[in-house]
Amino acid sequence: MTYAILPTGQGLRPLPPSLWESWDIRQAAAQDSPGAVIAAIRRAHGLNQAQLGSIAGFSQSAISRLESGGNLAFDVRLLRIFQRVLGIPAHLLGLSDGSFPLPQFDARRLGEQIGAGSSVRPDSGGADGALAVDCHTLTAACTSSVLAALPVDSSGVWEEDHPIDPDVVRRLLVARRLLNDSDNWLGSGDLARAVRELYGLVDRTRRAARGELRRQLLDVAALYAEFSGWLHQEVGDLNGAVEWTERALQQSQAAEDPELVAYVYVRMGQLAEVDGDGDRVIGLARAAQRERGLSPEVRALALQQEARGHAAGGEAKPCLIKLDEATVVAGDIFGRWTDEYRVGYYFTQHHLHAERSARLLDLGRPQDAIELYRGNQASRAMLCQWEQGIHLAKLARAYAESGELEQAAAAGFEALAVGRRTGAVVVTDELRKLNTWRDVPAIAPLARALDPGT
For residue 35, which of 73, 98, 182, 208 is within the disulfide window of CB 3.0 to 4.6 Å? Predict the structure, then answer.
């Protein structure tokens, strides 16, 4: 693998790319201890612990605890700080490298917007010629592509007397697909800001449009609002998630898009699930199913969500019936890849396999959940990273409830690693359901890693 010269914190010179393949660094990384890697890089910069602490804003004792493998070494927020200060490749700390493998077709199309001076490099791991782009580069390219269809001058000033190119709708939907796909790689924090900015651009364009184009842009605005709601939920901001999802519902209803209305009802049901309100989960899922002309993906999602509501109330029979119905509906799902974003396009039978395991756990059948999770490992690997992390956390809880505490700890640490890489708070929230066993010797290290301050 080829490494770039990575930027560092103020006052530090970038280290040569060859250092990352040196024996010392490889040995530190092999210990699977972020603290050991940070210590090795600190020494390569010629710093002592007190000097690094001064640069990063921590005490010398905190640096010592971090490097010795204490709980601080598993706090993803701290690891990001030291990654940036010391210029460490993210994967050496078990973090996402902050890049998205942009498909070759999209890379060619957005090439003019990406430009030669951006953070783009060939992805050595991909045989399809994908380009690895960071969040800023991707969102800047998407925004530039959209602006090219709008009446703005070279300085970005809106020219009121010029028409809007109707192709802006297609460009916005392509950008929405790319941003959705990149969530699995880039993490929600940076994406949330970018999506908010694009939503603002969509809204401004909508207000300037007329006729059918105005309705189409209202529909697109709802798509961006829904995604913004999810990104807020992924990082644990439930108030922001509710605000954006409710806005998406209002706009999708105003745009008369039953497919999107149904999907947003499902999303609102997921937020009700976080509140533990099973009745509201069921009611919203049924509201989704009443919308007309739904695709198999969205109808299956709505049935799955109703099953979750029944499971929350301990109602095994209706839960399993709805999962069976969802499985039948999902049989009509075919891979219909489109260039533009399509609601529910990601949903497959693989999701339902994992979902049935999770619901068996909720229904007090942990052994059955374990057996099904084990039998569908290959299927679970087809899910995106944060979803894999959630189901690993559920598997850990199933092991714990079955008294298999060593296996619970192993699955839990695997889930924690996924949560750290993706920055998905929803994964660590699921892991905290193991707190019942936090004083059990096998689980205690995982509990400390989850909450370093306790």
Answer: 73
Look at residues 249, 279, 301 and tell me which one is the last residue of a structural domain. 249
**Burial of 270 per CB tally in 10 Å (0-12, 13-18, 19+):** buried
Say what the alpha-carbon torsion angle 336, 339, 341, 343 is, to the nearest 10 degrees.
Answer: -10
- Boundary residue ending a domain (227, 249, 271): 249
Query: What's the CATH code of the domain at 289?
Result: 1.25.40
Residue 107 lies in domain? 97-249
> Which H, E and C letters describe the chain, residue by residue?
CCCCCCCCCCCCCCCCHHHHHCHHHHHHHHCCCHHHHHHHHHHHCCCCHHHHHHHHCCCHHHHHHHHCCCHHHHCHHHHHHHHHHHCCCHHHHCCCCCEEEECHHHHHHCHHHHCCCCCEEECCCCCCCCEEEEHHHHHHHHHHHHHCCCCECCCCCECCCCCCCCCHHHHHHHHHHHHHHHHHHHCHHHHHHHHHHHHHHHHHHHHHCCHHHHHHHHHHHHHHHHHHHHHHHHCCCHHHHHHHHHHHHHHHHHCCCHHHHHHHHHHHHHHHHHCCCHHHHHHHHHHHHHCCCCCHHHHHHHHHHHHHHHHHCCCHHHHHHHHHHHHHHHCCCCCCCCCCCCCCCCCCHHHHHHHHHHHHHHCCCHHHHHHHHHHCHHHHCCCCHHHHHHHHHHHHHHHHHCCCHHHHHHHHHHHHHHHHHHCCHHHHHHHHHHHHHCCCCCCHHHHHHHCCCC
75 vs 248 pLDDT, higher one: 248
Identify whether 352 is part of a domain: no
Same domain, 232 and 114: yes
> Is 443 in the same domain as 371?
yes
Together in a domain, 71 and 126: no
Residue 3 has pLDDT above 50, yes or no: no
Q: What is the pTM of this model?
A: 0.76
Same-domain pairing of 276 and 238: no
